[in-house]
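User: structure tokens for this one?
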Amino acid sequence: MAHILLVDDDQDIIEMNRTVLAQRGHRVTVSFSAAEARRAVAAEVPDLAVLDVMMEDKTAGFELARELHASYPKMPLVMLTGISKEMDLQFGFTPDETWLPVSTFLNKPVNPRILADEVDRLLKEVQ
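Assistant:
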């Protein structure tokens, strides 16, 4: 099926999501930081990336999303975020082409099956 890049600094989240995506037939590469994800993409560009927001710092995922979108504008990007809860923000985020060029946001914690359904839906859209 597809090559998926999972980027999150939480090993438990990575393992839950990797398991479900692999069960669906996807090949999954994992990275535990934005810097590690950059190296993984340089080695092999994935079909889709799932990104956490807060890793090395509170905006690492946002920055990585902008970089990936600039280099690979057709690559679907799913952003997982708990930033609203973590920072007690009273608003949410909306994807846009400049600041948040992602395909969709999912709030953490997300059920891995819901994530896998969203991944499959986005991959069908780009085929």
